[in-house]
Design brief:
The protein is α+β, with helices and mostly antiparallel strands. About 50% of the residues lie in helices and about 20% in strands. The relative contact order is 0.03.
């Protein structure tokens, strides 16, 4: 049963209506174009809005109006191709023109579509403005990305599987290969063989979807053979729309070289530390050298080593430690004599290593080279042992294998040698210090012996036996000058001799005459070779071969000699001279003290006689007592003035100190009697210096410890002299304590703080002020302001702070 014409039309209209509704609902523009005239015969609302028209305004318009000429031309050419049988593109980008003439990026999709029996184009039009903006943004981002990648100092590559699909210029520079040759190349071909295993592990992990999270270090060789170390950081990325792996490459060659250098230095430091540890554990030279050589042999993996010490005086090198050689050979090369020119050459050499021929004579070198011939060593070198500019010896090393000692080996060996040399020096210093300590102990004992009696003859044998602990001798004597004769006042000898105690000989026939004239020591090395003085011929006949004579000084002049003789030639040198010079000073002081004591005893008898005479004539009168006291004080004062007359630098010192002390006492409120006692003490405080030899008292340069000890006895000696005067009880503590310090660091008793009498503390400040403001042979005077600064600084340590303040207040008054 057929449908009527009416219902068919109604259905057609319904379909048309649905079609148009569908066209209106789509998000893209839709336009029908007449193929013959190229005019729009339909446009949906979205298309009209896209081009800025109403739909009815677009009907009948040529399609050219909605496209730029360039785009219209491209579409026309493309469509002609389609009409000729070419495949139509699914989409086509073009530039549209809206009603205002503004270009709009659009995307076309053109299909043939019959419309009411006519051939038409159905064109879907999509606004791609946002997409184009995104693409432009992406393009700019990619350009910035590429600019950034090219600008960084690191290399950057993109890998897909093992192939390089992108690389920046810096990565090409690192690999030493042109950029165009890298692209497409397998990364495996660029890596050094030793790094292939690491790279394969990374590749296998990548195949499993694992990207290394940590930095990876590899090495590669450039075409010129140069080795480069690189560090890579991998990342998973999307490159050109597909998965890939990026790698940031950093050249770490300098760092690796630095690490290798550090490792090398660490090895050296460990070796040095090992040797230093050995050196710190012992100061026994033999043990030290043996253990140090063992460490050198261990660290440098050597088969043998020797250490020779250089003995300039004996003109030889002596084997002190050895390892890896036979004892027979060690005995043969234990000591090798040198010639003077060889010693000079060894000392002046600045080479890092030495050869046997460079330091030994021909015979010594031949012996030394026996290492190679007899022991089978094939490699050998040696380094000098220097410390602080002193050549201590040579360290030789050897190996059974053919071994080339590199500059690094030599550098390490030198460093170890220097460390051993320092250890040798320290051990030698320890030995010297120990020797000096023993010498000081003996010297102190000798000092006690020599001052224990005023009779030098009485203690000389004991004294001489202690001297023998320091310096060997067969005869010791003390001779003093008496006019044109020389008298022996003390002799210690197990030999029979014509020159016994009390013997006198003509001064001009003795070496003492030469010492007196030249004011220095005399050393005779061998009487058998030359006897310069008549007395030496006598000594030679008695079996003596060498001698040393030390001058004994008093007030800068030689009054005698201290003499040692030996049966052996060349018995005395610099070491013996150093020891004996100090002892000679002690002997001279003891003799002078003996003389001064005799003079003091005589003076004491005279003073006591005068005192008895005065007392007998003035017993009933108190005035007579005071006159007598004044007489004694005058005598004591006369002695002080006589003492000061010996030294032009201290003339008037006691009187000035008395005046300063009185002013300070007034300021501190002392009584009249206390001030009188203090002034008396001030005038007599240096009386004890009367027994100190001029050679010490007037010495212009630094004084020795023994000379200082002598000077520090003067407060005690002054008290001993003044104690004979019974009315000096108040004066004695002040005189005795004027060199004590507030902090207990003074002398003679080290009394601290206010345990020292106030008068002594006042006298200490006044005495110090006058001493510092006066000229001395060893320095110019200080200004008053400088001295005040010193006093303020020393208040509380050297001086009583209350006394210092009182003393300084007197300046303002």
């Amino acid at each position: 049963m057929g449908l009527s014409k009416g219902p068919r039309r109604k259905r057609s209209r319904d379909l048309e209506q649905r079609y148009r509704q569908l066209i209106e609902d789509i998000n893209d523009g839709y336009i029908l174009v007449d193929m013959q005239e190229g005019k729009a015969i339909f446009a949906n609302t979205r298309c009209a809005e896209l081009f800025g028209y109403r739909p009815e305004e677009m009907i009948g318009q040529l399609i050219d109006k909605f496209l730029t000429p360039e785009s219209m031309k491209e579409i026309a050419e493309l469509w002609q191709g389609v009409l000729s049988g070419a495949a139509a593109p699914e989409r086509l980008e073009a530039k549209g023109l809206n009603k205002e003439g503004i270009e709009i990026p659009v995307e076309f999709s053109i299909k043939l579509a019959p419309h009411e029996g006519e051939h038409t184009y159905a064109v879907l039009v999509r606004d791609i403005t946002e997409r184009k903006r995104a693409e432009e943004t992406l393009k700019q981002s990619e350009e910035k990305y590429r600019y950034l990648i090219e600008g960084i100092n690191d290399g950057y590559v993109v890998l897909r599987r093992d192939r390089i699909i992108f690389a920046n210029k810096r990565s090409a520079e690192m690999m030493g290969t042109p950029l165009e040759e890298i692209i497409g190349e397998s990364f495996f071909k660029l890596v050094a063989p030793e790094s292939l295993e690491t790279l394969e592990q990374i590749y296998e992990a990548s195949m499993r979807g694992e990207t290394p999270k940590e930095k990876v270090e590899l090495s590669l060789y450039k075409p010129d053979g140069t080795k480069t170390y690189i560090e890579l950081v991998f990342r998973d990325i999307i490159y050109e729309g597909k998965p890939a792996v990026s790698a940031i490459i950093r050249d770490i060659t300098e760092r690796k070289q630095a690490e290798e250098e550090i490792l090398k230095h660490t090895k050296q430091l460990e070796a040095l530390y090992s040797v230093a540890s050995v050196a710190s554990q012992t100061l026994d030279l033999g043990e030290l050298l043996d253990r140090a050589l063992y460490k050198v042999q261990e660290v440098m993996e050597l088969d043998a080593g020797l250490i020779y010490l250089f003995i300039p005086k004996a003109e030889e090198v002596v084997l002190k430690a050895h390892r890896g050689i036979s004892e027979e050979l060690a005995r043969e090369i234990a000591g090798i004599k040198l010639q003077h020119q060889e010693i000079e050459r060894a000392i002046q050499s600045e080479e890092p290593t030495v050869s046997a021929e460079s330091i030994f004579n021909e015979a010594g070198a031949a012996l030394f080279m026996g290492l190679q011939e007899r022991e089978g060593f094939r490699s050998y070198t040696a380094v000098p042992l220097w410390a602080k500019g002193v050549l201590h010896g040579v360290m030789a090393i050897a190996s059974y294998s053919e071994r080339e000692f590199t500059p690094e080996d030599i550098g390490l060996l030198q460093a170890l040698g220097n460390q051993i040399a320092v250890a040798i020096e320290n051990a030698s210093l320890y030995r010297d210090i120990k020797d000096k300590a023993e010498r000081l102990a003996v010297t102190a004992k000798l000092t006690r012996i020599i001052v224990s009696s005023l009779d030098i003859e009485e203690v000389f044998d004991t004294f001489a036996s202690e001297v023998k602990r320091l310096v060997d001798f067969d005869r010791a004597s003390i001779a003093v000058v008496e006019g044109d004769r020389l008298r022996f006042i003390a002799v210690s000898s197990a030999m029979e001799t014509e020159l016994a105690i009390g013997t006198t000989v003509p001064l001009q026939e003795s070496a003492t005459a030469w010492v007196v004239e030249n004011k220095t020591h005399n050393i005779e090395t061998d009487f058998a070779q030359e006897a310069r003085f008549s007395i030496d011929e006598t000594l030679f006949k008695e079996g003596l071969r060498s001698a040393i004579r030390l001058p004994l000084f008093s007030k800068g002049e030689v009054f005698g000699t201290f003499n040692l003789m030996s049966r052996h030639p060349n018995a005395y040198g610099e070491r013996e001279l150093e020891i004996l010079e100090e002892l000679a000073g002690q002997i001279a002081t003891a003799i002078q003290n003996d003389r001064l004591y005799q003079e003091s005893e005589q003076r004491k008898d005279e003073l006591e006689g005068a005192y008895d005479q005065l007392m007998s004539s003035a017993r009933a009168l108190d005035r007579g007592k005071r006159d007598l006291e004044d007489a004694y004080l005058s005598m004591a004062r006369t002695l002080v003035l006589t003492l000061e007359a010996r030294d032009p630098y201290t003339r008037g010192h006691s009187e000035r100190v008395a005046q300063f002390s009185r002013q300070t006492a007034i300021e501190m409120g002392l009584s009249r009697e206390e001030m009188r006692t203090l002034e008396t003490a001030a005038r007599l405080h240096d009386l004890g210096k009367i027994g100190i030899p001029d050679a010490i008292l007037l010495k212009a340069g630094p004084i020795t410890p023994s000379e200082r000890a002598e000077i520090q006895l003067h407060p005690t000696r002054a008290v001993e002299l003044l104690r004979f005067l019974g009315f000096m009880d108040g004066v004695l503590p002040i005189v005795e304590g004027h060199h004590e310090r507030y902090n207990g660091g003074g002398y003679p008793d080290g009394i601290k703080g206010e345990l020292t009498p106030l008068g002594a503390r006042i006298l200490a400040v006044a005495d110090a002020y006058d001493a510092m403001t006066s000229t001395r042979p060893y320095r110019p005077p200080m200004t008053s302001d400088e001295v005040i600064g010193v006093l303020r600084k020393g208040a509380g340590t050297q001086w009583d702070p209350k006394v210092v303040e009182a003393f300084l207040r007197t300046f303002g008054k």
